[in-house]
Amino acid sequence: MVYELSVLEQLKKAIPDYLLWMISNGYANSTFIHYEQVLNHFLRFINQRAIPWDAIFTLNTLKDFQEESGLTHASTPVRGLSRYLFQQNRIPRPIEKPIQRLPEIYEEYLLYYEKARQVHHLNILRARNTLSALNCYFEELNIDLSHIRIEHVDDFLLKYNARFTATTRQNQRSNLRGFLRYLYQDREILRRDLGSLIIGAPLFGQAKPPKFLRPHEVKRLFTSLSTPSPGSLRTSAMIHLGYTLGLRPKEISLIRLDDISFSQREITIPDRKSNNPIKLPLPEVTIKAIAGYIVGARPETNDRALFLTFRAPYKPISPGSVSHDISTAMRKANLPSSAYWLRHTYAQNLLQTGASIFEIKQMMGHDKIQTTQRYLHIYTQLMREVLFDETL
Known about the structure:
- The protein is mostly helical.
- Helices cover 59% and strands 3% of the residues.
- Strands 1-2-3 form a three-stranded antiparallel sheet, with no helix packed on it.
């Protein structure tokens, strides 16, 4: 078989181009060396197999290369090269892992979950993996979704969840809880909300856990952010935005420099869950936190996103990174809470100051008043003042 020289020449040119791109974007030297070694092996593999250009960047070719080369982490450099060439419009698509389509009800939930929660695509992938395992379990036992009992759910978690870490098990329970609530509330397939019965160890030990921070906990959190490192400056700015404006992790991750008006002391949030853009006043403490991050920690780049990664190639951080950084800061402050607790705390502060539920709905960016009603916890002090006319 005569190999098409033009194909080999294209790949010989593509690999150095990609490696030069890595250098210009500041990749670590060890990463560059690893990628160079793997891609040179890949070039020889393509040459020996005489694979045509349109079949090079496919899952089958990548699988054959991994098996034949025996190289550790061989797929990452090849996938990276395919993404680079795709962005350069030199191939029609990058190498993507195949997604097995689930029955329609599962796919409809995943679409609903993505739109309603505005989560990162990795969260969608994790939810898909959980639901795929759940579907297999139900098919093996020939159980229809309308006949699910809590005993089935417990048995599934016992068999499927046991081999994972505590954090992964928690994520699995959360994914399952959301799906079961969807079957009950939105599709009316279940007669009761089985999702509320899925309780992990921490929640079981605390039947009604607090979902917002008390004043002394807020003080402890902000006191712990005093270290002026780049990561601390970025996290501090994100925490201020969550606490003083009630922004979701995704809303924080999407903020651009052009959305902030320091002279007007306000910020525009264009992409909200309710598709209702809003301008919010920026408190002075939040302005200082953002300015401190921009001056002291934000990488120098032409990208207009406010929050960027610290390692090249610099790019906007994901909502998952926002949640992770805030949660990590809270754990360091000995607060077993998450990024959404800041949003809950913001809602509590609005409630305490006398804001109506309709005003809170607008400020929180909810599309339905029912969401706001479910979202808010009763502020105990205000309840006692109103119901019992007490002065506390």
